[in-house]
UniProtKB/TrEMBL annotation:
One of the record's GO molecular function terms: metalloendopeptidase activity
Species name: Pollutimonas nitritireducens
Keyword Hydrolase: yes
Name the UniProt record assigns to this protein: Peptidase
Lineage: Bacteria, Pseudomonadati, Pseudomonadota, Betaproteobacteria, Burkholderiales
Domain Peptidase M48: 39-228
A single GO BP: proteolysis involved in protein catabolic process
Keywords, ordered alphabetically: Hydrolase, Metal-binding, Metalloprotease, Protease, Zinc
Keyword presence, Hydrolase: yes
InterPro entries registered for this protein in UniProt: Mito/Outer_Membr_Metalloprot, Peptidase_M48, TPR-like_helical_dom_sf
CC per GO annotation: membrane
Length: 462
């Protein structure tokens, strides 16, 4: 790959590649954009990354993928995909943390960057093709989907990198330290190794692309971590309640047909009968979520009542309660519930988003605007907040503000050409000299970024 072949992938190009793949990936039907799931995974990832032996060059963003196989993969730029099947199969939060920590280990040690520039000729040809597709997308022409089948290709890239035994062991050890320092039980890594080994044996000869095929397990790796666990004082962290609610939701989300959904609901019903405490509440929440998805509002309401029994409550349960009230046409009641939930969970993105939806559906866009502006300061990397703010601006007749805000949305999602178009539209809608000057600066800045990204990709493609 020309001058890049003798050195690691520069962080700037790595981020460009990751952003561009995610821009397409967010349109993939298997991408899970649910705020409860996204915030849970990314919070866990960044908590672990804060304790990495070597700080990652990129901010870590963890997202869910609708796939029942036990798998995970890392993209360039600090993006990590976690299959729904991995969370559903996990029995503890520490098991999930062990996989995310391992993937962060690969990111922090720059295994992905090195692998993309130092592997075989066939891998180089594939990555050059990816760069060519991204160039077409940055030029505003061509179909990115033709060059990249989003997460299917991302997982294929992960497989082709074929990390060495040394790299796998480095990622294990870095992940182990992250878990220990971040407050997760390192024994979760051992039990996840066992779960992955069993899954690999069950799926042997069936194809499938499970995690063990992309990150081959070995006796040496397992023994190394078992020895480290033996030298570490016992840890018994309680874990977060959200693990159980997110796991229950994903059990339903990953069901691709009516039969799979019936099986998922039956499993949740068994859990609701056998479990106690928060696990029982989460099972009823999953049943309520499944009913809500099928628009069976009566059953959803009944299951939610069961989820709340014995004082059980969570932001996930509260958010679904607001969504249910909105679906029943009780917008005033939904807003009251949303206000109460926001007072209790002011750091929850799902609650913030459902509060905005309630404000908008009651015609209170003037109240939604300042609330959204505050949330954007709180969570500057959440594109959906900008999209909702643009909608409220538009309904209030603030057309220039609406387009500037949509430009920020497209910028965050990696669609830079579309962001430029939005800013150009905004400029044509105002005669205010100062606003036009601000927009000119923004347009020029984005165009310079586009030019720089194209130059980096041209180098990579060659």
């Amino acid at each position: 790959m020309g001058s890049a072949s003798s050195a690691e992938l520069p962080p700037s190009l790595e981020r460009t590649l990751g952003d561009a793949i995610m821009e397409q990936g967010r349109r993939d039907p298997d991408y899970i954009g649910d705020p409860d799931i996204s915030q849970y995974l990314t919070t866990m990832g960044r908590n672990l990354a804060a304790h990495a032996p070597v700080s990652p060059d990129q901010p870590i963003t963890v997202f869910g993928v609708r796939d029942p196989q036990i798998n995970a993969f890392a993209l360039p730029g600090g993006y990590i995909g976690i299959n729904s099947g991995l969370l559903v199969s996990a029995q503890t939060e520490s098991q999930v943390a062990s996989v995310i920590a391992h993937e962060i280990g690969h990111v922090a040690q720059r295994h992905i960057a090195r692998g993309m520039t130092q592997k075989s000729q066939s891998s180089g040809v594939m990555m050059a093709a990816v760069a060519a597709a991204l160039l077409a997308a940055l030029s505003g022409s061509g179909d990115l989907a033709m060059g990249i089948a989003a997460f299917g290709q991302a997982a294929a890239v992960d497989r082709q990198l074929g990390f060495s035994r040394q790299a796998e062991q480095e990622a294990d050890r870095a992940g182990f330290e992250m878990m220990r320092k971040a407050g997760y039980d390192p024994r979760g890594m051992v039990s996840m190794f066992n779960l992955l080994s069993n899954s690999a044996r069950l799926n042997e000869g069936k194809g499938g692309g499970d995690y063990a095929s992309t990150h081959p397990l070995s006796i040496q790796r397992m023994s190394d971590i078992e020895n480290r666990v033996g030298e570490t004082p016992p840890a018994n962290p309680e874990g977060s309640d959200s693990f159980w609610f997110v796991r229950a939701k994903l059990r339903i989300v990953q069901a691709r047909n009516s039969q799979a959904q019936r099986t998922a609901v039956e499993k949740l019903q068994l859990d609701a009968q056998r479990a106690t405490g928060i696990e029982q509440s989460a099972a009823w929440y999953g049943i309520a979520f499944a009913a809500f998805q099928k628009k069976d509002l009566v059953r959803a309401e009944q299951a939610l009542r069961n989820a709340r029994k014995d004082g059980g409550n969570s932001p996930e349960v509260a958010g679904l309660g607001v969504s249910l009230a909105l679906a029943q046409g009780d917008t005033a009641g939904a807003l009251a519930l949303a206000e109460k939930a926001w007072q209790r969970w002011p750091d929850n993105q799902g609650i913030a988003l459902i509060r905005v939806e309630s404000l908008q559906k009651t015609g209170r866009d003037a109240d939604a605007v300042p609330f959204l502006q505050q949330r954007i300061k709180q969570w500057p990397e959440v594109p959906r907040l900008h999209q909702l703010l643009a909608q409220s601006h538009e309904r209030l007749g603030q057309k220039v503000a609406a387009r500037r805000t949509m430009a920020a949305y497209y910028d965050l999602t990696g669609a830079l050409p579309t962001a430029v178009e939005q800013l150009q539209q905004a400029r044509s809608m105002t005669t205010d000299f100062y606003v036009q000057s601000e927009l000119d600066v923004q347009i020029r800045t984005l165009k310079e970024r586009l030019k720089a990204d194209r130059a980096l990709l041209e180098r990579f493609k060659s």
